[in-house]
Specification:
With 251 residues, the protein is α/β, with parallel strands linked by helices. The protein has a single domain, classed as 3-Layer(aba) Sandwich (Rossmann fold), CATH 3.40.50.720. Helices cover 33% and strands 17% of the residues. The mean pLDDT is 91. The site of uridine-5'-diphosphate has 9 residues, from α3.
Length: 251
């Protein structure tokens, strides 16, 4: 087993998205060998163009719901559509990406003895009755609602991660991410930060919906990446789920 200061082979599943791009830059700059895949459904190859041709970078067009056989030391599983428009477009595929995709990435980690981090999301808490949500909160999800393809898929992936750990003693970790913002977020990602910023740029008024008491925990993307990479480097008895957000400015 290599230590974390050495040269690792790292798989990023779901590379082309917002988080995958940031994570890839960070790990590539540290000098690791990066293997990554994406099915390029919701994102283009533009963000990887500058890395193509590097001997430390390999890009595969691949769908996480199919098995993948590569040799790696660490896996970051980010492969799932993440904005409401994208994940509701094909709800069955969204659930498969987390469920079947989770099994494939865990099977790969099991065979290669790789450490694996699951990118989970605050949606696992559903429509929460508790603010801010703590890791001990069990959540409030309706399994038949429109967002459930995403919420329940991510919950199922967490179940699989802990099942594989109990059964196969694997080094798994779950990072639960809250509202992430920062460049180059998509103007139509459906989140409140991009909506407000777009309206400001267009000189349009910003409307506060409802009675304004709703809360969100905002996390800047560079801080989030610190948290995810830091979690991967924790000893094997630290599994999470760990919430990565900001209780200080939950508004
Ligand atoms: N798998 C994969 N890459 C690997 C090993 C496994 O994609 O290097 C996939 C494969 O589809 C397999 C799944 O992961 O079915 C689960 O693997 P596991 O060993 O847990 O289950 P089994 O093969 O016993 O069903």
């Amino acid at each position: 087993m290599r230590n974390h200061h050495s040269h690792l082979r790292i798989l990023i599943a779901g590379r082309a998205g917002f988080l995958g791009s940031h994570l890839c830059e960070r790990l590539f700059d540290e000098g690791h060998d990066i293997v990554c895949f994406d099915k390029f459904l919701t994102d283009t190859k533009e963000s990887v163009a500058h890395l193509l041709g590097s001997p430390n970078f390999e890009l595969i067009r691949h769908d996480v719901t199919s098995p993948l056989y590569v040799e790696v030391d660490e896996i970051y599983n980010l492969a799932c559509p993440a904005s409401p428009v994208n994940y509701q477009y094909d709800p069955v595929k969204t659930t498969k990406a987390s469920g079947r995709g989770g099994i494939n990435m865990l099977g790969l980690a099991k065979r290669t003895k790789a450490k694996i981090v699951q990118a989970s999301i605050s949606e696992v808490y559903g429509d929460p009755e508790l603010h801010p949500q703590t890791e001990s909160y069990v959540g409030h999800v309706k399994p038949t609602g429109r967002p459930s393809c995403y919420d329940e898929g991510k919950r199922c992936a967490e179940t699989l991660f802990f099942g594989y750990r109990r059964q196969h003693r694997m080094d798994i970790k779950v990072a639960c991410m809250f509202n992430i913002h920062g460049p180059p977020m998509h103007p139509n990602d459906g989140g409140v930060v991009s909506k407000f910023m777009v309206r400001v740029l267009r000189n349009e008024p910003n409307a506060i919906l409802g009675d304004g008491t709703q809360t969100r925990s905002f996390c800047y993307v560079a801080d989030l990446i610190d948290g995810v990479v830091g979690l991967m480097r924790m000893p094997s008895d630290i599994t999470g789920p760990i919430n990565l957000g900001n209780p200080e400015n939950a508004q």
